[in-house]
Amino acid sequence: MILVTGATGTVGSEAVGQLLEAEQEVRALARDQASAARKLGDHVEIVEGDASQPDTLDAAVDGIERMYLLLPMVPTLPQLDADIIAAAQRAGVRHIIKQSNMGAQDEQATTMQRWHRAGERLIESSGIAWTFVRPTGFMSNALGWADTIRSQGIVYAPGGDGKLAVVDPRDIAAVAVASLTEPGHEGKAYDVTGPEALSAAEQVTMIGDEIGKPITHIDIPESAARESMLGTGMPAEIVDALLEFMTDVRAGRSATISSAVEDVTGRPARTFRAWAHDHAAAFR
Ligand SMILES: NC(=O)c1ccc[n+]([C@@H]2O[C@H](COP(=O)([O-])OP(=O)(O)OC[C@H]3O[C@@H](n4cnc5c(N)ncnc54)[C@H](OP(=O)(O)O)[C@@H]3O)[C@@H](O)[C@H]2O)c1
Predict the structure, then answer these.
(1) How remote is the CA of residue 214 from the centroid of ligand 1, in Å?
(2) Beta strand 154-157 pairing with 216-219
(3) Phi, psi at residue 279, to the nearest 5°?
(4) For 143-170, how does the pLDDT look when each residue is reduced to its tens digit (9 = 90+)?
């Protein structure tokens, strides 16, 4: 039995679907059983639990052999990881595949990368076999531009000409699923990227091509990005962490391309143009 945490989210729901296609027995950890069941269907066992309430985790890991550990980007992530890793140790889980962040191991790691590295270190010293899936920025982050594309035909984004080898969440899930279901991935850390590094303006142009409407990209300063994110109710600590990441992107430090998707799955990584084509309805 494989446990997927974060199973209702962007990558987790893809991973669940791909595991079911591979005829695996899947359990999902979710904070609301009914809404998870609506999203994931009948073929998944859903255990209600919350990583911030450690006493709910033993039931989730009971009888689990392998776990896809994927939790939200929050400042308490190291503690959430620690509690679920401890539960996995008690339950005798044999292999943890952790969704982390590309660059987590770097000396110059950003705050978000350090939050992930703390969990990676705990897994390394847990005695449980591990695989780290370290994606770069998701192509699906572009869905955050959908409102202003629809209403104004404009994208306001920081990052300048900085390029990022954005990756399709379906490919991240595919790397995780291969790591969960095939031998030979223990002790490996995979940087998971798309096939080309793109600036925000280049991504915007491709979305415009797919919906048949030109979209204007306006590069905004950090102060405006901060104000806008705080305005959505995002906690200041997360806003700071995201802006730190954007500074890396702007400086061209996040443009690395890896071959992990093809190496692990045997298929080339999907392009942003293909992702935009598949998600064009969200931008019309
Ligand atoms: N977005 C990017 O560009 C990017 C890049 C690199 C790495 N990452 C990493 O990817 C992860 C996010 O992946 P994602 O975007 O696929 O997730 P997501 O769509 O943000 O979904 C978050 C998932 O976490 C679950 N969750 C939230 N709070 C929880 C809690 N207290 N206990 C248990 N489960 C909880 C949610 O489930 P319920 O609400 O149903 O309980 C949901 O399934 C983060 O760790 C982030 O650092 C993201």
Answers:
(1) 32
(2) parallel
(3) -115, 15
(4) 999 999 999 999 999 988 999 999 999 9
What's the CA gap between 68 and 96, in Å, rounded? 6
Give the pocket of ligand 1 (CB within 6 Å). 5-12, 29-32, 36, 50-52, 70-73, 99, 101, 112, 135, 137-138, 141
Residue nearest to atom 36 of ligand 1 (CA): 6
Out of 11, 48, 246, mutate this one to test ligand 1's pocket (max ligand atoms within 8 Å of CB): namely 11
The model's pLDDT over 52-98, given as tens digits with 9 standing for 90+, comes to: 999 999 999 999 999 999 999 999 999 999 999 999 999 999 999 99
Sign of CA dihedral 19, 58, 90, 172: positive
Residue pair 20/43 in contact by the 8 Å Cβ criterion: yes
In this structure, the residue with its CA closest to atom 18 of ligand 1 is: 9
Give residue-wise pLDDT tens across range 187-221: 999 999 999 999 999 999 999 999 999 999 999 99
Distance from Cα 233 to the centre of ligand 1, integer Å: 17
Return d(Cα 91, Cα 81) in angstroms, integer: 15
